[in-house]
């Protein structure tokens, strides 16, 4: 199944903030079409009778929702993970003199 999608390489280059030569654009266009064709082939695979595999190390659910925290104790996190001075967090210097 060959892809008939129209790909605007110039627009993609603009989004990615890159410049490509016309010969490079042709190569990228061909590669993108191959990728789209590959995924369209994957969509043709019948998976309705395939059993979902869950890794035993993840416990009851594959997303570990039972262990997920929705809130973080910011004060405790800062005390454990940073050096702070009052209300300010101390970080190593970024720029050298």
- Overall spatial form: flat
Strand portion: 5-15%
Largest sheet descriptor? 2 strands, antiparallel
Helix and strand sequence? HHHEE
> Which stretches are poorly predicted, pLDDT < 50 over at least 5 residues?
none
What descriptive keywords fit this protein?
97 residues, single chain, mainly alpha
Break the fold down into its secondary structure elements and pairings.
Layout: H1 9-16, H2 22-43, H3 74-81, E1 83-85, E2 88-90
Antiparallel strand pairs: 1-2
Compose a concise summary of this entry.
The chain has helices at 9-16, 22-43, 74-81; strands at 83-85, 88-90. It has 97 residues and is mainly alpha-helical.
Fold and architecture overview:
There is one protein chain. This protein is mainly alpha-helical. The chain has a domain at 58-90. 39% of the residues lie in helices and 6% in strands. The protein has three helices and two strands; from the N terminus they run αααββ. It has helices at residues 9-16, 22-43, 74-81, and strands spanning 83-85, 88-90. A two-stranded antiparallel ribbon has the order 1-2. The protein is flat, with a radius of gyration of 25 Å. It starts with 8 loop residues before the first helix and ends in a 7-residue tail after the last strand. 0% of the residues are buried. The model has no long low-confidence stretch (mean pLDDT 78).
């Amino acid at each position: 199944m060959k892809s008939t999608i129209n790909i605007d390489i110039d627009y993609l280059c603009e989004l990615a903030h890159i410049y490509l030569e016309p010969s490079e654009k042709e190569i990228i266009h061909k590669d993108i079409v191959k990728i789209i064709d590959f995924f369209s082939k994957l969509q043709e695979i019948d998976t309705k009778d395939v059993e979902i595999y869950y890794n035993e190390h993840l416990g009851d659910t594959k997303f570990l929702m039972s262990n997920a925290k929705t809130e973080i104790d910011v004060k405790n996190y800062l005390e454990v993970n940073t050096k702070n001075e009052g209300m300010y967090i101390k970080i190593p210097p970024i720029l050298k003199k």
